[in-house]
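Discussion board: Methods & Data

I've been asked by a reviewer to show the raw model output for two of the constructs in my manuscript, not just the figures. I'm not sure how much to include, so I'm pasting the format here to get opinions. Each protein appears as its amino acid sequence followed by a line of discrete structure tokens. Is this the kind of thing reviewers expect to see in a supplement, or should I convert it first? Here is construct A:
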Amino acid sequence: MFVGLGRLIANKLLKLPRGSNGSSYIKLYIAFFLTGLFHFSGDFMLERRMVYYSFKFFLLQAVAITFEDFVISTAERLLRRGGIEFKSGRVDESWAGTVVRVVGYFWVTLWFCLTLPGWVDESSAIGFSSTDRGAITQFLLDTWTRHQA
């Protein structure tokens, strides 16, 4: 659904060629904007002061993907200068491909550790929940407490 609307806007309305960077980024930001919009309605029903937290979180995800693309293209250029041929997005069983995948997993984990608590803990700040902890910590504490009782 989101991709179809993104294609409509990027390719039909803005007349950007399919597969171009501009088309890809328009579709990316539209998808994350609409995801934030859907969460916005839930936030609004829960507590009106929370309405922008979802937008902030989901648009930050699109910004992170844009940053990732910049880092990947820069890394590809630097690797090529060093005589290492690497094509991102393709299955690559070389040591460079393995390193890139591992760095990618660490990056995604780090990014969610940085952004998810900001989204979840905002509900704590307005009094929706009783503590102001990160999501993972809160889950572990709640699980531990239930098993101890």
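Construct B, same format:
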Amino acid sequence: MSGRLILASASPRRQQLLEQIGLSPDEIRPAEIVETPLKGELPRQLVERLARQKAETVAGGHGNAYVLGADTVVACGRRIMPKAETPAEARRFLRLLSGRRHRVYGGICVVPPGHGGVQRTVVTGVQFKRLSEAEIDAYIVSGEWEGKAGAYAVQGRAAVFVKSINGSYSNVVGLPLFETSALLNGLGFFSEERVDGG
């Protein structure tokens, strides 16, 4: 069995990651939801709620498709670090991450045709080296932090900040590919003709 795949996310990184494993979404339908954490909400709870809401919101009008919702949350301890919106906020996040370990939570939810959503949560540990003010300044100037959870993109210049990663690298980029593929496979999405031969 195979079907149409709708990605309920505007993230170009998630689309690129799916294409990396031979999956081109048939449609990109960003879900219009409020992503603000609820009072007392922990990182895992937030990422699971947002992934589910994204998938279910879009699936409501597309009953014949597999809808993939995903969200990424960067957290230092219990502190959730949202997408950086200003240079000052990005600088504050990078100073907090400097020399420390933090976690990246990846939530995925797939709503298949005629069924409720199925979820998975992936947690990756990331260790940053100690950052100098000059390194932080240069990264702020690059603009790469804009709109990134935790104010960095591991697949870009910030790769030199990372001493170690414990777990899924693609999860830190924006979508845990092993778990996403396994979830779609378990729900009967894949067929031979859907996966690129090259």
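Answer (T.O., handling editor elsewhere):
This is acceptable in a supplement if you add a one-line summary per construct. For B, something like: The radius of gyration is 17 Å.
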